[in-house]
Amino acid sequence: MEEKFLEELYQNQALIHKVCNMYRDTVEDREDLFQEIVYQLWKAYPKFQGRSKISSWIYRIGLNTAMATFRKPKIKLSKNNKNLENVELPQTFMQESNNEQLLAAIKKLNEADKALVMLYLEEMSYTEIAEIIGISENYVGVRLNRIKGKIKKSLNV
Amino acid sequence: MDLEDLKSENLNDGNTTFSKENLQRMKHVNGHPVLKGIKTKLILESVFWISFLVVYYDFFDGHLKPLLWNVLLIVSVGPLLAHNVLLFYITKNPINGENICTSFKHYLKRLRKNSIISIGTRVLAILIIFGYFLSSISVFESRHYVSLFFLLLIIVIQVYVLHKIWVKRISKVASVYEQFS
Fold first, then answer.
1. pLDDT < 70 stretches in chain B
2. pLDDT tens readout for residues A26-82
3. Over the stretch A1-13, which tens digit does the pLDDT of each residue have?
4. Nearest-CA distance B156 → chain A (Å)
5. Which chain A residues contact residue B3 at CB under 8 A?
6. In the predicted model, what is the mean pLDDT of residues A106-135?
7. How far is the C-alpha of A43 from the C-alpha of A50, rounded, in Å?
8. Do residue A70 and residue B169 have CB atoms under 8 angstroms apart?
9. How many Å lie between the alpha carbon of B34 and the closest alpha carbon of chain A?
10. Predicted ipTM?
């Protein structure tokens, strides 16, 4: 079981990085959250029976772990900080300036909205999103429309 | 600029950075940064209180106190450590349901229950410790009343601080839960 778990985790770890990048601002906090998620995934693995897609399961556990914390975030350091320059980060969400603005707007959303957007960006169906979050499919649609409005407003489009 | 534009970008994101060996290490309690911290604190506090129990009988005249208070003092170490034990248990188990909303609902319920246990056990432990020291006093003088006043003050401060800590935690989780509804 352990081997299978590690293999699946290894193949899908990019999903965990995405959650960490979305919910934490500093390298240290992201690494800590990554470890917390891996620990929770391992704990939950015996109950994972493959009824849902592995990506859905990882997102459910990952998002839950990221939001259910009450740790104080570490102070965000300047981008010019030398310590950060030497750290190898997963290159997520940092490609183009337009996308950076869009991502900055997403990061300003509340925790729940961020979770919905993440799942939407993963091209999950409303049914899948509804199952992960625990709300109705219709409400997923309503919420996503509201979120799009919030983002447009934030970007002054 | 639309969310749709980000879909294809997002799907290509996320480089593989951790080896299987690293992932293997992360799945243990010692790989969990918060649990590791609580565990260390719990061990240090346990060592402190066990050391206290080893020396208290000689240092604080255990032979002059009633047997009941000696037993209660030993037992009170459990409640004193309860706060960190509960914190460890809560941090270890944040997933409590088949979906995120259910999980948060159960998590919130557990946090509220544990906050009462945490505060209650701390007050109980302080009362026992002070009860032990006051147990051999047969005639209360004014200085004893002053001690009692400080005892009450300590209890009130402890309850206040612990209450603030738990309220902050519960509010954080409750706020996320409300965002989903």
1. 1, 5-6, 8-16
2. 888 998 999 999 999 999 998 887 778 899 999 999 999 999 987 666 666 544 444
3. 788 899 999 989 9
4. 24
5. 102, 117, 120-121, 148, 151
6. 93
7. 15
8. yes
9. 8
10. 0.82
Contacts of A7 in chain B (CB under 8 A): 20
Residue whose C-alpha is closest to residue A39's, from A71, A23, A17, A61:
A61
Inter-chain CB proximity A13 and B14 less than 8 Å: yes
Amino acid at A21: N
Name the phi and psi angles at B96, rounded to 5: -135, 30
Which A residues, 9 through 68, put their C-beta within 8 Å of a C-beta on chain B? 9-10, 13-15, 17-18, 32, 34-36, 38-44, 60-61, 63-65, 67-68
| A67, A91, A103 member nearest B176 (Cβ) | A67
- pTM here is 0.82
Tokens 């009462």: give the residue.
Answer: B116
List, as own/partner pairs, every contact residues B108-111 make where C-beta atoms lie below 8 angstroms and the sequence separation is at least 24, other chains included: B108/B170, B108/B173, B108/B174, B108/B177, B111/B166, B111/B169, B111/B170, B111/B173
Name the token pair of B173: 């989780």
